[in-house]
Amino acid sequence: xxxxxxxxxxxxxxxxxxxxxxxxxxxxxxxxxxxxxxxxxxxxxxxxxxxxxxxxxxxxxxxxxxxxxxxxxxxxxxxxxxxxxxxxxxxxxxxxxxxxxxxxxxxxxxxxxxxxxxxxxxxxxxxxxxxxxxxxxxxxxxxxxxxxxxxxxxxxxxxxxxxxxxxxxxxxxxxxxxxxxxxxxxxxxxxxxxxxxxxxxxxxxxxxxxxxxxxxxxxxxxxxxxxxxxxxxxxxxxxxxxxxxxxxxxxxxxxxxxxxxxxxxxxxxxxxxxxxxxxxxxxxxxxxxxxxxxxxxxxxxxxxxxxxxxxxxxxxxxxxxxxxxxxxxxxxxxxxxxxxxxxxxxxxxxxxxxxxxxxxxxxxxxxxxxxxxxxxxxxxxxxxxxxxxxxxxxxxxxxxxxxxxxxxxxxxxxxxxxxxxxx
Length: 423
What we know:
Blueprint: H1 7-16, E1 33-34, H2 40-43, E2 74-89, E3 94-111, E4 116-137, E5 143-166, E6 169-190, E7 196-219, E8 224-252, E9 255-269, E10 276-285, E11 289-298, E12 302-305, E13 308-311, E14 315-324, E15 339-348, E16 352-353, E17 356-357, E18 360-370, E19 381-391, E20 399-414
């Protein structure tokens, strides 16, 4: 069964069985729908993290582990995402709306010394959850039925270390551990056939890689500053264990009966997470505003999927964003101390079907709401973000996905471990 030719059938089944598929039909391919992103504040700025050094002392940048020279407080973040997807296809001119809400980020970070900062975090990396059934009546009157089912989640745990080599130059290293299980099965049968033919793939993932980062910030005249940054993700260790099976059987209830294996394969692959690098540049004014840009590149990889090689294309992402803070010392006007964020991005995706790329673009925005009327250097607060965009196209029987994603995060920041000298 050629998985690469299945998307039009997925589109058909997706709209016919709209309540039983995950949030994106494109999750049916490869390792699923990649959810991994940075924190709410970074996402609200279009995802610019490579050349982003927060002016205050209450935030840790996991995107570029070198860009954390101002962190002086211990921080604990909890973040959640609400996804609202609106799908449309030229198949019978149909449309469907899907929603999901999930915990998207937990992080803790703290300074070890004035030059060394450390952070750990958890995020879901990718997920798939779909269940699609299609049926077609052939010219001879026989009904052909196809079923596509997939489920599973990959998660990532990160540990990052920042070291300030010079007042203007920082270096950082982040380790990324990916773990989880993914399962896909395609089934084919005919109304005059007693058996079902099933093609299944089970992937067990335990893999490490590493991200190196560098950040340079130069002070200019009139309290302005120039920031440059770069990251490089490399070094897959560990592996993805894949078991593929082609078999025939039938069901009694939900149980397979009389299964006969036609073909089975076991394989191991270390190239699950691709090599990636990013470059960024930004200009800002101390405690007032910042605007930055970023270019990301991911190398394409080939993995085993349903017994066949599945090829991810080279992809890139261009982003622009920043923030504005009216007056952090104005305690008479709360909204003068709110940080307002904005951004946009375009991504040439790594999925391609029939020569058509599955690309994505969006505009983003958000704000950081401080909790208390205290110094800006002790800001716990709530981060809010919104992302409005589009993925895919209606061409070649593809599916266009419009989305509105809402994000919220709570950041608790304080000097938790400081010894009190006076009561």
